[in-house]
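fwd from M.: "can u put these together and see what the complex looks like"

so here's what she sent:
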Amino acid sequence: MAKQGILIVLSGPSGAGKGTICQELLRSYPELNYSISATTRAPREGEQNGVNYWFTSHEEFQKLIKNDQLLEWAEVYGNFYGTPCHQIAALLNCGKDVVLEIDTQGATQIKKKFPQGVCIYIAPPSLDELAKRIHKRGTDSLENIKTRLSSANVELKYVYNYDYVVVNDEVPSATKKIAAIIIAEKCQVVRNISIIESILSNEKIKI
Amino acid sequence: MAKQGILIVLSGPSGAGKGTICQELLRSYPELNYSISATTRAPREGEQNGVNYWFTSHEEFQKLIKNDQLLEWAEVYGNFYGTPCHQIAALLNCGKDVVLEIDTQGATQIKKKFPQGVCIYIAPPSLDELAKRIHKRGTDSLENIKTRLSSANVELKYVYNYDYVVVNDEVPSATKKIAAIIIAEKCQVVRNISIIESILSNEKIKI
């Protein structure tokens, strides 16, 4: 049986840069597999169905929930986001590592359902910096920006439910830290029982 | 107050290569601080007092134990080994990371006294490979080699008390894994409470 893969959950408040870091991580470490979320929100410019998200209707999304085909789901600012579970389970069982980029509500659900998942909180260097980034992105309506910023104070407190926190000062440095976290997790004793048993199952040393 | 440093404990059975890995780690990451152990064993060729070990007499060692000046100590193959605690505490309080290279008895004591210490087990790829390495090193008497090898089967089972296991197939690769473990540990939420609080203590975002 192949060694089980690791589920890596990248999360944090809107504007902290989790999307950019996720892209950089997948570019630098092509052996990682990205789990594409399903969403009912409208595609942003340049976003493709089946690449950035599975864009679905509200009706289709409700069907996924009803048939228990989502690992987690959440309603964020009036839109639904969720993680289809079948593909993830298949990849993990083949020993492949899977990266998820989700909001803080979703990450909390995953940690409860899969405590062996590695939850990494991408934090902004400061709340002021977060505000600047959301304004600069310019992809949200003024109304959306206001909603996102007012949630940020609350969302930052979710960090205590996570395993790791990576402050996104600079994308390359934050990405390297996440890569280090993945390597370290693969070395945890609890994830290496089969390797240890194989070393121990050798015949006793002849002297 | 400076962020607390991390105590990194490299350990494993004799011949697994923890000494070589420790040297390579300190060479590649000079910001790490090596904690020099005290021992009553005779120096091997090329070993220097105050560099590789503090070579002490049995009488001096007993005094260190009596005055509670050792973080851990153990008798291994008739010799005493111990970790002087004063310097380590001072470095950790200044935010400096400290690397210890100790035997499995010592690591178990450290884990009990300092659960926040990071215990890494350096494992050989197989028991046969371990036997070859101890023979090849050629620094031990035949009697010592026999004692070391007969202990290895038992020592390998201590791995379950550790946080991480790194199989020493190749020194550079094993060293990089340990460096990744240190980076990851520094990102753990529990080690970053002060940074998180400083982000959260900013004034609320003005919208």
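replying to her w this: The longest strand of chain B covers residues 70-76.
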